[in-house]
Design brief:
This protein is mainly alpha-helical. The chain folds into three domains: 126 residues, Rossmann fold (3-Layer(aba) Sandwich), CATH 3.40.50.620; 95 residues, Serine Threonine Protein Phosphatase 5, Tetratricopeptide repeat (Alpha Horseshoe), CATH 1.25.40; 197 residues, DNA Cyclobutane Dipyrimidine Photolyase, subunit A, domain 3 (Orthogonal Bundle). 47% of the residues lie in helices and 5% in strands. It is built from 20 helices and five strands. Helix 11 packs across helix 16 and helix 14 packs across helix 16. The chain is globular, with a radius of gyration of 24 Å.
Length: 504
């Protein structure tokens, strides 16, 4: 009598049991091997770091407990995925592979192609199910939003109550959080795992979101009032569908509440929902055009910055010693905590790309290592947007002095992370180089703001004047651009044109 097919469930960036289609479908068919593969080659990449692993480690421990309560075990193996899968095939004979579709970096894309080739060579079925709101095989963005919303509105898939494990599978020891395979030591790391994700989600929906929009751009207090779900989404402890449906359910509860606070909370949650949709929008870009990890969306910008790279500028930016207080505080905070709010992220990229004229391909890996919530689709799309190389987005150049005055007016965030400026008064905290006696331990600005921005604008303008720029931009827009329509607004009379490009 032939042995039954063993279903291998390959966990990737979907470290949960609830709303997990591959797990639900495979476990209904017979014995399973839930599998997580630790790939040493991946952890040598310039965009990988121990910070990511420490969050993932928490997630794996939670999945192990969830599966154990249902009769199964998560098998963790270290090595190349194809070799691990081949070892399991030889052990069981007949196997099938199940996983979510993954939109990762070029390395994981290449690895998946190797797995596909192995499956075809061995006659093994690889069942891949959609992940969140990303649509595989989409040619352009027409109709994407409706497809995404329909998928997110589908019922959440319940977790199986019992999972039949395949017999006699070797259990390897899970590497520690501090194993040298995962790179150098890092600062603090947000706690991972599904239980923590649910706690963070519920606290946001119930109370923390009350000041979401009010504080979203503030570099310090935003850590409390933003959702802090980005890392949980990136590694799949919760699905976007779960989060969006829970948010809408909470908003429905608030409709019946007559008080102003409930109305304000509902408004903030609505703004959060739009950002969940935008998240899927940006990951979709990488799904449709994987080479945006390496190539400018608009080819006219290729070669614009690469020859002008300066290591001293990069080092000053990467370590938080540029002489611009908010830039340095944001970078040092990121080193310490692994998270800063979106505006500060955009400002760091803008400063590196325009003021320091550093190519985005040199700066993107550094921030990827620091972000606990590193998501390749969002990361490379946003780096290109904030560097002005998409050809379809408005040029956004952040004035680090104005941003500092607007979002940290008393310098509390700056003094917390730049101790060299603790004794500088509020009057000079944003521009300490103007103080009659500049602090001796803090560097002078690495570049002059006005001169650097003028040079950047001239370079961008020259690229936009190249032949076929408009035609190529239209091609980018058709393939990757949003189809959202901007609301009709009356034009504003701007009294001070000098600020047009400085405030997002």
């Amino acid at each position: 009598m032939n042995s039954p097919t063993v279903n291998i469930i390959w966990f990737k960036r979907d470290l949960r049991v609830h709303d997990h289609a591959p797990l639900a479908y495979a476990s209904a068919r017979g014995p399973v091997v839930p599998l997580y593969v630790i790939e040493p080659e991946y952890w040598q990449l310039p965009d990988a770091s121990r910070r990511h692993w420490q969050f993932i480690h928490d997630c794996i421990v939670d999945v192990q407990a969830e599966l154990a309560s249902r009769g199964a075990a998560l098998i963790c193996r270290t090595g190349r995925v194809v070799e691990v899968l081949e070892d399991l095939r030889q052990k069981f004979g007949s196997v099938a592979l199940w996983s979510h579709e993954e939109t990762g970096n070029d390395w994981t894309f290449s690895r998946d192609r190797q797995v596909l080739a192995w499956c075809k060579a061995q006659g093994i079925a690889w069942h891949q199910t959609p992940s969140n709101g990303v649509i595989r095989g989409l040619k352009n963005r027409d109709g994407w939003s409706a497809l995404r919303d329909k998928r997110i509105a589908e019922p959440v898939i319940p977790d199986p109550k019992y999972i039949m494990p395949a017999a006699d599978v070797r259990l390897d020891t899970l590497p520690s959080k501090d194993h040298p395979m995962f790179g150098a030591a890092v600062g603090s790391v947000q706690s991972g795992g599904r239980l923590e994700g649910l706690r963070v989600r519920d606290s946001f929906l119930k109370e923390r979101a009350t000041k979401y929009m009010m504080t979203i751009s503030k570099p310090g207090v935003s850590a409390r009032h933003c959702s802090r779900l980005s890392a949980h989404i990136a590694y799949g402890t919760l699905s976007v569908r779960e989060i969006e449906q829970a948010t809408k359910a909470r908003m429905a509860e608030l409709v019946a509440a007559p008080d102003l606070a409930s109305k304000q909370l509902r408004k903030n949650l609505s703004a959060f929902l739009s950002r969940l949709a935008w998240r899927c929008h940006f990951v979709q870009k990488l799904e449709q055009q994987p080479n945006i990890e390496f190539r400018c969306m608009h080819s006219a910008f290729e070669g614009m910055r690469e020859p002008h790279f300066r290591q001293d500028f990069f080092d000053a930016w990467a370590t938080g010693h540029t002489g611009y207080p908010l830039i340095d505080a944001a970078m040092r905070s990121l080193h310490a905590n692994g998270w800063i709010t979106f505006r500060m992220r955009a400002m760091l990229v803008s400063f590196a790309s325009y003021h320091l004229w550093l190519d985005w391909r040199r700066t993107a890996p550094h921030l990827a290592q620091l972000f606990t919530d590193y998501e390749p689709g969002i990361h490379f799309s946003q780096f290109q947007m904030q560097s002005g190389v998409t050809g379809i987005n408005t040029l956004r150049i952040y004035n680090p002095i104005k941003q500092s005055m607007d979002h940290d007016p008393e310098g509390k965030f700056i003094r917390r992370y730049v101790p060299e400026l603790r004794d500088v008064s509020d009057q000079w905290i944003h521009e300490p180089w103007r103080f009659p006696e500049p602090p001796p331990l803090y560097p002078k600005p690495v570049v002059d703001h006005d001169m650097a921005i003028k040079a950047a604008r001239d370079q961008i303008a020259a690229c936009r004047k190249t032949p076929d720029f408009r035609d190529n931009a239209q091609h980018v827009r058709q393939k990757l651009g949003s189809r959202a329509k901007s609301p009709q607004r009356k034009p504003k009379v701007m009294k001070d044109k000098s600020q047009l490009s400085f405030d997002l």
